[in-house]
Amino acid sequence: MKYLSCVHTHTQFCDGKNTMEEFAREAFARGYRSLGFTPHSPLPYENDWAMKEEDLAAYKAEAARLKNEYEGKMEILCGIEWDLESGALPQGLDYAIGSVHSFSKNGVHFSVDYEQALLRKVTDELYGGDFVALCADYYALVVKSALRRGVDIVGHFDLPTKYNKDGSFVNEEDSRYLALAFDAVEEILRARPGMFFEINTGVMARAGKKMPYPHEKIMKRMLSLGARFVLTGDCHALSHLDGGYEESLRLLAKCGGKEVYLLTAKGFERQSLS
Length: 274
Ligand SMILES: [Zn+2]
Ligand SMILES: [Zn+2]
Fold this sequence. Notes:
This protein is an alpha/beta fold. The chain has eight helices and eleven strands. It has a single domain, classed as Metal-dependent hydrolases (TIM Barrel, Alpha-Beta Barrel), CATH 3.20.20.140. The strands form three sheets. Strands 1-2-3-4-7-8-9 form a seven-stranded parallel beta sheet. Helix 4 packs parallel to helix 5 and helix 5 packs parallel to helix 7. The N and C termini lie close together (7 Å).
């Protein structure tokens, strides 16, 4: 089975390396059914990765132009990666991925996925070296984010493990760590049965990990509780398109998954893994 879609794509409107037009051309050349754009939602503080509030209208206009250009050939979706620290969800979008990237501890604001050295520093200085304690704060916010009205897909569930390729932050199968992740999964699915989560391969292309988010153990727990999955590349460059998809679908099958979902203009479409 070929999964010909990506609905998590960053472009010129935030921290992507390619334009929406370039992504559309490349996705179409690869035979994609659907391509969804998800600029980082505007944030109330200085940063170098999110869309600016004043660019929202231009973003929507460019998405509308491309929708028109590819009509009948490939579905273009106008979404957003809605950060928990952003304000209200902008109106008139097709869907939202709900994500947590940053939060504060003891008055210090930081991002968990910005730089490995920063993550190490905040773990040591704000959490006394206890990375699982940092994850406890993160997962509490992921639950809050996932339950916001308007969120369609939970983004990169276990993002703090981005720089854990060598296991130096946490053993991702450690029971204290997993209990936190499992509790968050349960809370989300209790409130929103059948919720969609990403299998996000961005961590493979951008941080050199061998497997996507979420970790195999978490994916299994999600499946056992009725979660559904959408596969995305969290693409910031054309070269990220469908990177890691085959491994991810194999992992999903290994975890007992029977299906994966593809987002189209008509909603989520089920695809059997077999
Ligand atoms: Zn993100
Ligand atoms: Zn993203």
